[in-house]
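Troubleshooting entry. The earlier prediction with pentane-1,5-diamine gave an output that would not parse, so I re-checked the input for stray whitespace and re-submitted. Clean input:
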Amino acid sequence: MTRTSATALALILTAAPAFAQQLNIYNWSDYIAEDTLEKFTAATGIEVTYDVYDSNEVLEAKLMAGSSGYDVVVPTADFMARQIAAGVYQPLDKSKLPNLGNMDAQIMAYAEAFDPGNAHAVIYMWGTTGIGYNEDMVAERLGDAAPVNSWDLVFDPEVVSRLADCGVTLLDAPTEMIPAAMNYLGLDPQSTDAGDIAKAEELLKTIAPHVRYYHSSQYINDLANGDVCVSVGWSGDVFQAQARADEAENGVSIVYTIPDEGALMWFDMLAIPSDAPNPDAAHAFINFVMDAQITADITNYVWYANANAASMPLVDQEVKDTPGIFPSEAAKDRLWTAVVYDARTDRVVNRAWTAVKTGR
Ligand code: N2P
């Protein structure tokens, strides 16, 4: 090969790398800033394919089947714990994650309960499972005494029956809805007792005639457009509904509440499947997300709390001051975390949930 052609070849390779690295991400819907992926590709040259889901069960089915093709996935910590035990994830190579130093040790310690030593995952975002409601529609039906800071809004048959006409929705998330129902009944939301689960099932069946649907992402637009009035939902998603209504200037006012009886606090984790085709690119992405500015941009866009201490000075004041996103210490005392269900409990909970949804 002549010198000229070698130079020409080098130029071509620089301009259009024939073996551009690829990264396949599977994340929750409405859960990333608009420019995160673009910035990642600009910084690393790695091309991203990005798919979304709205259910841990859907993610779990894909991972358990194997060969999902995904390099980075975002399970909630209690699901992840069971998946780690099943060999679904590879341990992180922390030498490739220099931005780990940005993480908040105290919040990462919560996640250690699900992954000793934080060996397999880092926290992406965390939040709560509470209630989003339309202020005016609820006030019209229940007046000033509406129990808007209580799970009565959905679990008291007398109250929820008066809201049914404007649309009440529940998350299609059995491992979140059943503990919420147990807690409302004065039972331990962390209970794995079949009798307790049966009582929660009974309560959910009692209110089922007043529930318009069970879905975990549709309610964002429906709340924003005034098509439903009360949704059990995830903190940031309800705030996104509020923001969409504000942008549309449609007169809809959405509020997120962590009910006084307490709520689930959950952690969503960035993890790499054992059979990920591109583990290096996966590490590069996880490290990129842990950059203080990148995580702050995501929190500022999706209104979910992160566990990145270095990002906090870059998080908008309005977001930091919203108690539904960053609860006060007093409010945190009323939150519970998920327990890792063994296979039997998982089956009992899922069977109960199917019975609730099908009315059998
Ligand atoms: C994002 C929902 C993530 C919360 N739309 C579920 N853990």
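This one parsed fine. Residues 343-358 form the longest helix (16 residues).
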